[in-house]
Amino acid sequence: MTVYIVGAGPGEVELLTLKALRLIREADVILYDELIGEEIKELIRKESKAELIDVGKRAGRHKKRQEEINSLLVEYGKTGKKVVRLKGGDPFVFGRGGEEIEALAEHGIDFEVVPGISSAIAGPAYAGIPVTHRRYDPALVLITGKQERERLNWDALAKLNATIVILMGVSTLRENVERLLRHGKSPETPVAIIEKATTPEQRVVRGRLGDIAEIAEKEGVKAPAVIVIGGVVEVEEKVRNFLRNLKES
């Protein structure tokens, strides 16, 4: 009996890994997240004969609590069926995959982790923003826009010469921007928000740290979105007219 914790990637169906696709086709049960994207939801309906269980979570709208998802994985894992837990992005990048494998291990259930492409990397890439570049900051920091309790050292983060990528940060954008500014981050720091990254509905909203909250509110930016803070955002201005990956899809 094995449970597969599988990353579905950032939403673009062709960014699903070959191994993930094979497991989807072979699965007896698939527990899938909301953020796997509509194209991949359609794919699992067409390509899989598995029992499909929607355990998606959105802010304030959880179909299943994490504890319930863990219990389902344990329950189905004990049946001997091939169980796929299909998660948006990568299971271990703010995806609670770590909590799920702890629950499985606690109950003596074998599991395998299948990495996926994280939207933290793919979202900026599809927008023409390299999260690392030799001319810009020499470090990359990924943070969640939502914390169960305040643990982040904002003073250290604001002073670190690093590109900051924020996931799940639309609803707390103003609050987090104000923290960075209060701790000394320059208001002129470039910022890009990639909404619905890698999907046909992707759009990029640009600004500076000092005005991005107002711009995002004016533009009606909605989750899911990836927020990039740092000089690498300037690259997008130079390449946007030549970027083809979504224009021709």
In short:
This protein is of the alpha/beta class. The protein has helices spanning 18-26, 38-47, 66-77, 97-106, 119-126, 154-159, 173-182, 212-219, 233-239; strands at residues 2-7, 29-32, 51-54, 57-58, 61-62, 83-87, 110-114, 140-144, 163-167, 190-195, 203-208, 225-229.
What layout of secondary structure does this protein have?
Layout: E1 2-7, H1 18-26, E2 29-32, H2 38-47, E3 51-54, E4 57-58, E5 61-62, H3 66-77, E6 83-87, H4 97-106, E7 110-114, H5 119-126, E8 140-144, H6 154-159, E9 163-167, H7 173-182, E10 190-195, E11 203-208, H8 212-219, E12 225-229, H9 233-239
Parallel strand pairs: 1-6, 1-7, 2-3, 2-6, 8-9
Antiparallel strand pairs: 4-5, 9-12, 10-11, 10-12
Helix pairs in contact: 3-4
Task: Describe the structure in your own words.
This protein has 249 residues and is an alpha/beta fold. Helix 3 (66-77) crosses helix 4 (97-106). It has nine helices and twelve strands. It has a five-stranded parallel beta sheet with strand order 3-2-6-1-7, with helices on both faces. A five-stranded mixed beta sheet has the order 8-9-12-10-11, sandwiched between helices. A two-stranded antiparallel sheet has the order 4-5. The chain has helices at residues 18-26, 38-47, 66-77, 97-106, 119-126, 154-159, 173-182, 212-219, 233-239, and strands at 2-7, 29-32, 51-54, 57-58, 61-62, 83-87, 110-114, 140-144, 163-167, 190-195, 203-208, 225-229.
